[in-house]
Amino acid sequence: MTEFEITLQLVDSPVDQSQSGGSMPADKLVDAFHAFPFADEIKRAEGMDGATFPTITFIRKSDREEIAIWTDDAVSYDMHLKSGSFSRFVNSQTPAQVEGMLVRFTSESVAEIAPKKKGLWGRLFG
Q1: Burial class (CB in 10 A: 0-12, 13-18, 19+), 126
Q2: What is the sign of the dihedral through the CA atoms of 87, 93, 95 and 97?
Q3: Percent with pLDDT over 90 in the chain
Q4: How far apart (Å, rounded) are the C-alpha atoms in residues 32 and 90?
Q5: Which end is more exposed in the chain, N or C (fewer Cβ atoms within 10 Å of the end residue's Cβ)?
Q6: At 99, is the pLDDT very low, low, confident or very high (cuts 50, 70, 90)?
Q7: C-alpha angle with apex 22: 20 to 23, nearest 5 degrees?
Q8: pTM score, whole prediction
Q9: What share of the chain is helix, strand, coil (3-state, %, to 5)?
Q10: What confidence tier does 45 reach under pLDDT thresholds 50, 70, 90?
């Protein structure tokens, strides 16, 4: 089964630092997303100068592709999908949308699961 490394960034972490959350099999990614204390971290950030967004990142060990997930309200989530030179931000996702992307990430590349660019620029350069 595919294994993933997890990194965690809490609100009092420096922007460029995260801590290891260990590793886990693919079938536990959604559970890890739900277990991460987004709401508690947001509450802890109130009144804190220089707080960072609480972020959980999943890195597939076999190819180092990754999905980072963060929020500032624990209602909608922003994501960054990365693989080599491929980089895509996906904003304002519901928990169900995040879950769906994590499930797909267990067997598909981030380029395959990233929403397609829309609009003129997306059609021309996407």
Answers
A1: exposed
A2: negative
A3: 69
A4: 19
A5: N
A6: very high
A7: 135
A8: 0.88
A9: 30, 30, 35
A10: confident
Helices then strands, counting H and E runs in the chain, come out as 5, 6
Calculate the CA 76 to chain-centre distance: 12
48 Cβ contact partners less than 8 Å away, ≥ 6 residues apart: 11, 12
Residues 64-93, mean pLDDT to the nearest whole number:
94
Tokens 């990430």, residue located: 105
| The amino acid at 62 | S
Average pLDDT for residues 12-26, to the nearest whole number?
86
Closest CA to 48 of 92, 10, 8, 75: 10
Q: What DSSP line would sit under 82-105, residue for residue? A: EETTEEEEEEEE-HHHHHHHHHHH
Average pLDDT on 100-117 reads 92
13, HSE (Cβ side, Cα atoms, 13 Å): 18
Residue 12 has pLDDT above 90, yes or no: no
- For residues 10 and 41, the answer to whether their CB atoms sit within 8 Å is yes
